[in-house]
Amino acid sequence: MERAIRVRVSKLLSLVLRHRPEKAGIVFDGGGWASIQEIVDAAERHRPRLTREMILEIVAADEKGRFALSPDGKRIRATQGHSIPVDLGLFPLEPPQHLYHGTSRDAVESILSKGIDSRGRQYVHLSLDPETAVRVGQRHGPPVVLEVDAGGMHRDGLEFFRAQNGVWLTTGVPSRYVRVL
Hints:
By secondary structure, the chain is an alpha+beta fold.
């Protein structure tokens, strides 16, 4: 599949599976799973024509692991990044002492005073290493990496989860746990 088509299909899947299933007439179960066939059928009027094979190729090629297939291969869901309520079946885990958040220079002052919020999504996404946080932050301009005292947050009773793709999740990060790296 050519790159431009792969990007369009990936963005469509992200929109439907993370934010707006109703836009495609898709209904998830409580865990965020949707039928691959229903997605293919809903996209029937779009070009290029979406196929099951295209969806499977997107899932297999996605280095960030944004999507997961059900064990029977008939359903798909986003692994994290939802702005709609989805129960991913995650259990609280003890995080590493430090996690990292990539952001833009423009956001740093606000984050240092107010903390990191989920900005309309279910969770704040945190990276295991500064290099990944740089890549995430670059989407918003020149990146700034913030170090999060995840161990301190955990000791203070705040919960962490790890998505299937390894991204660490929490509902918010109070400013006292954040420092510019």
